[in-house]
Amino acid sequence: MPKREQRPQPLPPPGPAPAVASAARLCRRRGRDLTIVALGPLTNLALAVERDAAAVGGVRRVVAMGGAVDVPGNVTTDAEFNAHVDPKARDTARGWGRLRRPRPSSR
Question: Where are the beta strands (DSSP E) in the chain?
Fold first, then answer.
């Protein structure tokens, strides 16, 4: 009889807490051990900053996908989708001071 394939256990379902509350709680608990990687619009990050700036401000760094340096944007000639759909969140995150200017590293 062939061996049964080992499969990973399924992840638990998402908890009942809203994403913003969960993000702020995680930031407070993990602090400098946490790097936030934002692959979409910065809406939840901006709301977490407004909710608990001290907790979110304690993370090691934030890496956000939200623009292009030497090429046109993917929504307009100068806008990338993640920044375009929620410019207020992008501005809140920028004003918070944790996002750095892009550094082109590949061409």
Answer: 35-38, 61-64
- Please compute, for residue 81, the number of CA atoms within 13 A of its CA located in the half-sphere on the CB side: 4
Q: Which residues pair with 37 in a beta bridge?
A: 63
- Give tens-digit pLDDT for 46-83: 999 999 999 998 998 888 877 666 777 777 776 788 88
The tokens describing 50, both together, are 């407004």
Give me the torsion for CA of 97, 101, 105, 107, rounded to 10°: 140
**Domain edges within the chain:** 34-96
Can you say whether residue 97 is alpha, beta or left, with left for phi > 0 and alpha for psi between -120 and 50 degrees?
left
Distances in whole angstroms, Cα of residue 60 to Cα of each of 39, 55, 70? 17, 11, 27
